[in-house]
Amino acid sequence: SKVLQRLTQVQKDASTFDVTDFSEGMIQMAEAKFSSNPAYANVTKKFQVMNGQDLRFADSTFSHIGCQFGIMFFPDRALGLSEMFRVLQPGGRAVIATWHDTDNLTLLDEFAAYLSLTDVAEGRAAMVTAMEACGEPEVFQQELAAVGFTDITVQKVENVFTLPNDEGLFLAFATNAAMKWAAGGVHNYPQWQEFLKTVGAKWINSEGRVALRF
Length: 214
What we know:
single chain, two-stranded parallel sheet
């Protein structure tokens, strides 16, 4: 939505926006957000569940690509970056954000403990390893250059994101292959709400949204 806000109407009319994610819940959230805002009613957009390491697009499809908090989930990050470069037009631009240190993991740890889940160590370890691997700017710059990207800038930033406390957010966790280890299944949404009203209340801000530092 922030990208669309920066475009002129002429640019919007001439563009098609493809939104993809590995998590079905995240795609549902995106569709709901766009469909509820009349400002985006006439924008051509498509929503698809898709593996970032196997993008179902032809070579040189896009002038711009954004990957927000996705690459740390790729078992083979080089393959995922190669796919982005493949579908990007010559002279196109890519903006990629990844986690290094995030409250997400702590929140999920606490919810898993609330559910008394015991089989979480493997999933948690995989997430920590992926985050650490994405954490060094120099290494990431080398990885981007290795697949063909040029004119690369890498920087660390810190921000607090506030997310809607609704079923869409929970499903984004529960249907994501890299995070569902802590959710215990899509049927646990009532328990998620109980958690956020009790021992997990510290994650809710004054506006009733989930606030996480990234």
